[in-house]
Design a protein that fits this description.
The structure is a homotetramer of 159-residue chains. Chain A has three helices and six strands. Chain A is of the alpha+beta class and 159 residues long.
């Protein structure tokens, strides 16, 4: 599990003891992620979810982050997070992401932080795809939706 | 509304057009809170909730953040956040917090970010009070619970 | 000194016991600015310098941060910082900035963090004004240079 | 160069085209490290220097970050940084650190960020070793000093 930042697929994650996820990578807790209580600050987990979400959106083909018109604006509408156990300096973890449900211009993602077979923290996000006016919905690219379904086993609704 | 960081009570907030909250202060969006999309990054709102929570816990008397034995360990177990509209550089906002429900050694807080009468973002957190072993529950101080009830109108459950 | 974020000029700063500066505001240490050693993290002081620099550049008229062609790209080329004493949770400080030297398309700024008449941290930055190609120098607006000289007593070189 | 976070020694770094450094690792720019100008924020480079400094101090044996009496308090007294070229989302870089000069209870470190043979940013820090009173100097462990000299070629002064 020391191949940091390398993208793992379903088989690679299973080999590392993590079932049910098709996208993830390993990373290590850094000093600046700790707070005055000497464990990882609870806001930092949301940062990690953002980091893997940005990678995922590019790898699955939802956006290339060109900030140009060929890409939709991808906007988080809501998030939730559950904390199960604290994390400490230098700990190595596996960060995973998957789409649970995909609709024509929105989707719901799950995230989890795994250490030695335990989940330390998990989260969920509701995400929408918009035109550059920030209001009108833009439908997802068909290929990206297919990947969500094929790789993650995402449920389709109206797609 | 230009009295930045000054603590506002229920009457002061009402005078500023914000009803239903008894604790808040004004602040201003800083450059480093923007992300590459040029609006306030979605994780930053959780930072704001943390900032007002830390102030609230001290002002209501739940902890003095001494990191010593006289104070409980206050731990966030879960959080959720809803984003209603983006925020931009230099915008001034009112940040508010209140306890919705208080149990003997836990409580649920709400947070909101107000701009000109609109709520741009709201959140909620489930928080527990622990001994320094990080496991055993430590009951809240009675005076802090009284303040939650009297100031915020928090519902008591088993307290 | 409890008028947080209000811009202070030379006279107001002098009245607060801070001589030699013409631009500043008060702020308060937040929980997320502490690190695992329970004092303000050394990188955070650079954040503070950035915050006041962005305000200063707008107030003195060097840029409006429109990200459009009417504004130059303002780029930090070098920075240095000296730490004199640690800072702690909830401490109130005065943050000040001034231009020391201004050339046709660059300038050198100083920063300081004051608590009760002591300087806890000071810094300096070399800044250049560029066209949107990120390479060609764009001369400062004359009015901004005049303000640097009149308000801060900045030394002119070749302007 | 895709072995992220793996510690590289002098030979490994030379094989990657980076001469003159004996300690480094590769990492990748994350979305949250960009600012509203869509490149890596200038403060973030100091974060990177902190991350590699904390690893270095542990690996060379100056401290184990136990926060207990067996370890000194390691305090940054001054820092400087030079920015040579901007960095962008997803870029991979090599981050390196070395001690230039070591005295009985202080030392000077250099840092650099390398991309494809170019240095995008470099920095320097003056660091002291203190007792837990935060004032009295505590001499470095002899073994750590030896490593600084042998691995990095650090100059000794009074040690």
């Amino acid at each position: 599990m020391t191949q940091y930042l390398t993208k793992f697929d379903r088989a690679a994650l299973q080999a590392l003891g993590v079932d049910g996820w098709a996208y993830g990578f390993a990373d290590r807790v850094r000093f600046h992620e700790l707070d005055a209580l000497n464990h990882v600050n609870n806001v930092i987990f949301l940062r990690w979810f953002e980091t893997i979400r940005v990678d995922y959106l590019q790898d699955y083909g939802l956006t290339s982050y060109s900030h140009g018109d060929e890409d939709p604006q991808i906007v988080v509408r809501a998030q939730s997070v559950d904390y199960f156990a604290p994390m400490y300096q230098n700990e190595t973890y596996l960060l995973t992401a998957r789409t649970k449900l995909v609709k024509p211009s929105s989707f719901i993602m799950d995230y989890a932080v795994h250490v030695d077979g335990d989940v330390r923290c998990s989260g969920s996000a509701v995400i929408v795809s918009l035109e550059h006016d920030g209001k009108t919905r833009r439908p997802h690219r068909a290929r990206a939706v297919d990947r969500m379904v094929q790789r993650d086993g995402a449920e389709r609704a109206g797609v």
